[in-house]
Amino acid sequence: MRLLYTERFRRSYREAPAAVRRAFDRRAQFLSENLRHQSLRAKKYDEARDIWQARVNGGWRFYFQIKGDAFILLDIIPHPK
Fold first, then answer.
1. Residue 26 phi/psi, 5° resolution?
2. Which of 53, 58, 62, 65 has a CA-to-CA distance to 47 between 20 and 30 Å?
3. Helix H or strand E encompassing 70
4. Given this model, what pLDDT does residue 72 score?
5. For 2, phi and psi rounded to 5 degrees?
6. Per the confidence metrics, is the pTM higher than 0.90?
C-alpha cells in the first residue's frame, strides 16, 4: 500500500523530536507492508470519520485513513495519558 502525507502530518513530523521521527520511519515501513504488524497496535480510532490510530512509541501516536490502496497519514502527536 502507498503512504500519502497530508500537510498537517508533514508539519507535525518536522516538529517532532528526532527520536520520534526515526521511530515513525520504521513504523511507516511496517504499515505499508502489514496493517496488523504487532508493533503498530493499529486500531480504529474514530469510526464515524474512518480514522485509525497506531503507535509510534510509548508516548506518540499517528493517525491515518485508508482510502483504496493508500494510507493517508493525518497527524503524529504525543499520546495524551
1. -65, -45
2. 58
3. strand 70-78
4. 97
5. -85, 155
6. yes
Domains, the chain: 2-78 (3.30.2310.20)
Reduce the DSSP state of residue 64 to 3 states and report it: strand
Q: How far apart are CA 30 and CA 33, in angstroms?
A: 5
pLDDT digits over 25-72, tens only?
999 999 999 999 999 999 999 999 999 999 999 999 999 999 999 999
H-state helical runs in 1-81: 7-15, 18-33
Give me 43's grid cell: 486500531
- Residue 41 CB burial class (10 angstroms; 0-12, 13-18, ≥19): exposed
